[in-house]
Amino acid sequence: MVDGAELAFDVDPVIENDRTLVPMRLIFEALGAKVDWDEATRTALAVKGDVKISITIDSAELMKNSKAVALDAPARLIGGRTLVPVRAVSEGMGAKVDWDEASRMVQIVTSEEPSQPEKPEEQEKPDKTQKPAEQEKPIEQDSKDPGPYIPDGFVDFAELSDVDMAALKARYNNLIRYDFEQLSLPRAVIVEHTSFAKEIKNKSKTAESLARDVWNKIVISHLLEIQTNSETNYYIGDIDGDELYETYLSIVKKAGLAAEEQFDISFETLANGYPMMLVTFRNTDTLMACKFLGAVAMPNGTVRYFTAETDLVNKDNLYFCEVTKTKRGTIGLMGFEKEEFIQCAWITIENDLPMAATLERNL
Fold this sequence. Notes:
The relative contact order is 0.08. The two termini are 47 Å apart. This protein has nine helices and 20 strands. β14 (263-269) and β15 (275-281) form a beta hairpin. The chain has helices at residues 24-30, 86-92, 162-170, 172-192, 196-201, 205-228, 241-254, 259-262, 338-351; strands at residues 14-16, 19-23, 34-38, 43-48, 51-56, 61-64, 67-70, 76-78, 81-85, 96-100, 105-109, 155-156, 234-235, 263-269, 275-281, 290-297, 303-309, 318-323, 327-334, 357-360. α4 (172-192) crosses α6 (205-228). It folds into two domains: 14-109, 2-Layer Sandwich (Copper Amine Oxidase, Chain A, domain 1), CATH 3.30.457.10; 156-360, no CATH class.
């Protein structure tokens, strides 16, 4: 218990040499400290104000502001987590620690009990002989919104650090685009949304929204992974799912990675009358990525999914490819114009052209 709140650990505390050891990061953060980990030396560093504590796995002492403090039980690596002696690190951070034998509970108080506020002096009553206009008006209180509560050592999750923003943008070229072009979008239109052919025929906003939503959720998933593994401690707090999504989407927009900034969507018609939803990427400088994506509505209610991809070696042409439920492969070469991509889709369907080279892969 820290200041009356119970902490839940993913690894149970242990007792060694009559000393309780608890998972390092959670206890330090509960004490208001920011934590860093040095894998090379297997040393944790916790900083709170002007107090710096470092503790090394299996060491019989910790360092507080460069002074050694002996430990009755060293830090241990258990279950993939670093466990530290709770009394030593808590008292090192200025907290008080008590042990309740009956409940086998460690009670930690990080600060002194707040003192009672002084009773305000009785204000002089206004002179009743004064006219109302002559009486002093009360001073207006500062009503400025203090903003969301952020614990010490944490950063609002809506403000991505420069390092993490750079990491997110670095994933654009390969991870984000590949996932969207070769996995998530074809899986959505071929496998998951069985009525998508109808949406294409109707040129519906639902079809456009689905493609953009798939892209944005991919970027957000990478953003979440980066924040989870970041050296920066992000604080989310009590927030519902819709607000959480909108906040993360605002970060995606700050990064310049939102769907509306990456590609355009149009509805085209093949020479045989089949309707196509065409995705055209604005950035075509990325290697091993697509310039065009086309979802064609077939008469039987299915969707065929085609791509026009760049290549590391052949920069004079695009590779016209198809993705199915079980494989993807190259059908031939094409140029860089939208009309040629649409024509390639028609010729492939009309003549049932095979893939020249295939990669077996289930969506």
